[in-house]
Amino acid sequence: MRHAPFLTAAAICTLLVACSQAEAPPDTTVPPPAAADADAATEPETPSTDAAPAVSMYDCEGTRITATFDGDAASVSVDGQVLALYSEPAASGAKYADEAGNVLWTRGPNDALLTVVGQPDRACMAVAPPH
Q1: Cα–Cα distances in Å, from 50 out to 10, 39, 54, 100, 115?
Q2: What range defines the domain where residue 94 resides?
Q3: What is the CATH number of the domain that holds 101?
Q4: Residue 82 domain-assigned?
Q5: Terminal Cα-to-Cα distance of the chain (whole angstroms)
Q6: Cα 67 from Cα 87, distance rounded (Å)
Q7: Which one of 8, 62, 105, 117 is most buried, by most CB atoms within 10 A?
């Protein structure tokens, strides 16, 4: 009976080794990716900051406006003045406003709402630029 603990321990070790997952040797037939390729695959592409501003033209109930969108800002030319507007949170669409209360709120690619202080709100429809 003195050998029973030794035999039990040896049997347990044998079972543990047999049940453990063997680590497969590395596959040497396929070369590892180059360091630059690995970095490019894991890092997201950085958007270009050199993108040209987007220009849209609208007819706002008979008043033509030009809106130039550049990142979080919009420059709106209306009634001979240029409004410098900045992006604001909106439930839908993109809303640009200034501290005076002037607002251009785009709703999709073709519709907008224009608010100029001292004037009634105007519904706007996108128009093609003149040739």
Answers
A1: 70, 23, 12, 30, 30
A2: 54-127
A3: 2.40.128.200
A4: yes
A5: 104
A6: 13
A7: 105
